[in-house]
């Protein structure tokens, strides 16, 4: 199975390769009051219903326009016609990244089978681990922010549109990948758990907690998955492509590896690196990860590391260790994708379940690839980017943290719990920015 990986990590790689280690940008911070955050969530929640109605209308019209072209089967039958309209949702480029060649006929058949099952259609989407800052290159922290709000609002819009088309119960179940891919990504377990709770809280805050649920477990039993992975001899591990290596360099939770993973893939970090890590402040740890990841892409920057972080020779050894870790992680990531049993376990491919994905599988055209952040952002995933609300023509953009212009304001808010956490960056006042966000078009996002 070929997995086409997220483009956002490639953007980081290409920028670092071209520019070297970017300076840590300066920011101001402000917080949205709770009442204003409630108003924003209410307005976005109301737009979900209006957007879903519009999306459902477009899907019905699409089926009408295709009459006689044999894209769908038995459209004179009520249930088959409704199922065709659901499939047509995923032929909309605003919804799915593979809209131009998705196997709509197979989707139609799957929806009919789900309706025959009697318990209603369940969408199942494997989506992500907690954000990983990578020394501030990718995100501001590990918590869900405006990117996750937009993604969940768009998922709710698609799911609600399906309800309108089928006139039946429909739910979407998000299955996280933190435990499933831990042996490759080493994401901090407590960060993953918090991220899942935050996504569930966002769905509830938008008024669609019953429509979207976050599963607690991966598709497969993690212990059984580890056993099957361990049974594969290293000689039979796949050779990662350049694209897979670039993705993995910025997907591994390096801070957690240095904090708590004794020997990733059997390779211990250099002793000097571990000793220095233990003595550094959180800010200097982030800076060291930043320099290490940049040097992994652009070895010419090895001489630029600050002496107060680590000496040059130990730094070069650390980069070599990271390169070997990345290669092994990329191979394990591919293996974990291949050996997961999707037809077993509590969240397997059961009757009534229609699989969705956020990463394109080249050999599975019947699986819609959702554009979580809108078609303009392609395969960007919320866990790899931050949100920028700006004065220019495109008021809302998603980009790596390193690409946020210097001097922008970091807007924080208490999305879940009481502690304000990063929400988005802006060159506007928070009042102007939230006013723009209240008018967001969840379907036709630019």
Structure description:
The chain has 446 residues and is an alpha/beta fold. 45% of the residues lie in helices and 10% in strands. The protein contains 14 helices and eleven strands.
Short description:
Helices cover 45% and strands 10% of the residues. It contains 14 helices and eleven strands.
Tally of distinct domains: 1
Largest sheet data = 5 strands, mixed
User: Helix and strand succession?
Assistant: EHEHHHEHEHHEHHHHHHEEEEEEH
Radius of gyration: 22 Å
Q: In percent, how much strand structure appears in the residues?
A: 5-15%
State the end-to-end distance. 32 Å
What general form does the structure show? globular
Number of E-state strands: 11
Share of helical residues:
40-55%
Given as residue ranges, the uncertain stretches (5+ residues, pLDDT < 50) are 343-348
| Strand order in the sheet with the most strands | 2-10-11-8-9
Task: Tell me the number of helical segments per DSSP (H or I, 4 or more residues long).
Answer: 14
Briefly note the structural class of the backbone. alpha/beta
The whole-number mean of residue pLDDT values reads: 87
């Amino acid at each position: 199975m070929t997995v086409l990986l997220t483009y956002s990590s490639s953007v980081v790689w290409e920028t670092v390769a071209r520019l070297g280690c970017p300076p840590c940008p300066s920011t101001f911070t402000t917080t949205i009051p709770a009442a204003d955050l409630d108003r924003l969530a209410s307005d976005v929640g109301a737009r979900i219903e209006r957007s879903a109605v519009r999306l459902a209308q477009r899907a019905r019209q699409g089926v009408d326009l295709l009459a006689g072209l044999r894209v769908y089967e038995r459209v004179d039958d009520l249930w088959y016609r409704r199922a065709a309209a659901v499939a047509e949702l995923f032929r909309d480029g605003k919804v799915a990244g593979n809209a131009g060649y998705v196997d709509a006929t197979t989707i139609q058949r799957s929806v009919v089978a789900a309706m025959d099952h009697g318990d209603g259609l369940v969408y199942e989407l494997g989506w992500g681990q907690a954000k990983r800052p990578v020394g501030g290159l990718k995100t501001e922290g590990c918590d869900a922010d405006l990117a996750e709000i937009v993604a969940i609002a768009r998922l709710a819009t698609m799911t609600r549109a399906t309800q309108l088309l089928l006139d039946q119960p429909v739910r979407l179940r998000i299955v996280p990948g933190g435990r499933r891919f831990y042996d490759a990504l080493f994401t901090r377990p407590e960060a993953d758990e918090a991220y899942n709770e935050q996504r569930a809280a966002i769905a509830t805050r938008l008024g669609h907690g019953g429509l979207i649920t976050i599963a607690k477990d991966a598709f497969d039993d993690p212990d059984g998955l580890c056993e099957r992975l361990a049974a594969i001899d290293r000689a039979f591990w796949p050779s990662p492509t350049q694209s897979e290596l670039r993705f993995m360099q910025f997907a591994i939770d390096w801070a957690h590896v240095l904090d708590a993973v004794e020997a990733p893939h059997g390779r211990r970090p250099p002793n000097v690196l571990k000793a220095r890590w233990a003595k550094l402040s959180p800010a200097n740890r982030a800076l060291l990860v930043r320099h290490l990841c940049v040097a992994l892409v652009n070895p010419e920057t090895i001489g630029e590391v600050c002496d107060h972080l680590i000496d040059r020779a130990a730094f070069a050894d650390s980069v070599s260790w990271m390169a070997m870790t990345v290669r092994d992680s990329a191979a394990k990531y591919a293996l974990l994708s291949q050996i997961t049993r999707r037809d077993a376990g509590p969240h397997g491919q059961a009757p009534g379940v229609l699989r969705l994905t956020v990463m394109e599988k080249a050999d599975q055209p019947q699986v819609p690839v959702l554009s979580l952040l809108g078609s303009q952002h392609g395969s960007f995933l919320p866990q790899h980017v931050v949100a920028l609300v700006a004065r220019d023509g495109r008021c809302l953009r998603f980009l790596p943290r390193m690409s946020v212009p210097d001097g922008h304001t970091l807007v924080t808010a208490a999305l879940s719990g009481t502690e304000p956490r990063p929400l988005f960056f802006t060159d506007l006042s928070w009042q102007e920015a939230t006013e723009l966000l209240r008018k967001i078009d969840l379907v036709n996002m630019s």
